[in-house]
Structures are given as structure tokens and as C-alpha cells.
Amino acid sequence: MKTKFLFLLLFISSFCFSQSVNDYIAVIVPVKYDFLKNENQYRLNTVTKFNLKKAGFEAFYTSEAIPKEYNDRCNLLYVDVKEEKGFMITKLFVTFNDCNGKVIFKSETGKSREKEYQVAYNEALNLAFESVYALHYKYNGGIASSLTPDKVAPIIASVQALGAVIAVNSVENTGSNMLYAQPTTLGFQLIDSTPKVVFKIFKTSNPTCFIAFKDSKQGVLIAKDEQWFFEYYENEKMVSEKVVVKF
Fold first, then answer.
1. CB 246 within 8 A of CB 227
2. Nearest to 113, CA basis, from 85, 82, 84, 88
3. pTM value?
4. Contacts with 66 (C-beta within 8 Å, 6 or more apart), sequence order
5. What integer pLDDT is reported at residue 225 of this predicted model?
6. pLDDT for the residue 170
7. How confident is the model at residue 15 (pLDDT cuts 50, 70, 90)?
8. Which pLDDT does position 159 carry in this prediction?
9. Short-list 51, 35, 38, CA closest to 126
10. Whose CA is closest to 219, among 150, 174, 171, 182?
11. Does residue 198 register a pLDDT over 90?
């Protein structure tokens, strides 16, 4: 039973929460990289943004005013360039991270044997971006866009069936804990009366199922018998938490 549980948990996690660069609407570029002393040293930050735009991304510096439609920070990627130490060779690679610092993509390492720093760093970075071009980036509408009803339904059924076999803990919310849904680009954020953002939920093709994030917990927000429940795994048990929400 434990093996089946772990297998299903890994399957659900990889299916529902696997992410690619295509899930993100734009990229944020820092004005300084950690391995360098000055902002835009050797023009690497400029080269980064140029390559991102060439690869099809919308890109903004951290110092820029970002348009309103890009205000959801978790709908953005955060690019970084890192240096690998090498003898008589410059090595750079690119990473794309989500709003929680998780690496979504890491490029191949670009290498240069040029002796002049300006030339070497620029050549290595441009070579690293070749694997970014190979991604053929195209924004797909968000992390939930690929979940069609025929894919979502069996996942929900599996979660519910397994939860019934192992254990289901219900946490009741009272009316005083009413949450209010505020629309975002890809779904809603659920806020309390403080107001504080309690959940971030993302639409799927099934209107009764959302991918849901609450603090460090990841799960699904699903409708059952005209009520909403946040379901996730904790200590190898499925927890079903009733959520009172007004859309």
C-alpha cells in the first residue's frame, strides 16, 4: 500500500505541478549577477535581455516599471547567469527560476577561450543561450492550460479513492473564515478579511477543479456537494480541508 501511495503521489506531483518555460508570460532580468562586481559588467545583463527577446520572451529588468498584466510574480520567470570555474576558460550557464526559487530550466554551459574578459563572457553567454533557443519558447497560457477534463478526472478520482483507503482528515472552516476570490491572470487569489492572500489557485479545463497553493502546501481545490475542499498530502495521508470561499 505504501508503495502504491508513493507511486501515485509522484505521478500526481509530476503531472499537475511539472512546469516548463512555456508556462510563464515573461522573464525578469537582474541588473547585476552575483559573480561580478558591478551592474551590467561586460554588458552581460544587456546581452541576456537581448537573447531573451530574440528567443521570443518578454523580458524586463528588475529596475524597470513592469506593465500591469505582468504583476503576478508567480507568472514570471527569473533569469540568472552563473559562472563555472575553469582553467584558462570562461564557462557560463543560464537558469530560469520560478517565484519560489525552483529551477525550471538550466541551459548547457557556454565556453570561451578568449583572453579578453569582455569578449570571453559575451561569447560564453551567447553559446549558453543556444540551448534556450532550442526550447522554441511559446507562452501557452499558464501552468494549468494543459489539464483537460479527460486528464483531470482520473487524477481526482485516484486521489479520492486512495484517500478513502488510507485516511481522510477533515478540517472544518467556519463562516468567520470566509475567503474572497480575486481574479488573477490564470485563476484567483483567495484572501481573508485582513486582507491576506491565503491561497493562490489556477484554473484547469474543469471548472470544479483548481491547482492550489497554500503556504508550502500544494494540492487541488475541488468542489464536492456544492462545497469546496483543499486536498493535499501530509505525512503520507491525504488531508481534505473545507474551504469557505465566495467567488
1. no
2. 88
3. 0.56
4. 26, 28, 60
5. 83
6. 44
7. very low
8. 53
9. 51
10. 171
11. yes
Share of the chain above pLDDT 70, in %: 78
CA separation for the pair 240, 223 (Å, rounded): 12
Residues 6+ apart with CB under 8 A from 116: none
C-alpha cell, 65: 516599471
| Residue 182, C-alpha cell as written in the block | 480575486
Do 92 and 80 contact (CB within 8 A), yes or no? no
Domains by residue range for the chain, with CATH = 2-16+143-246 (no CATH), 21-133 (3.40.50)
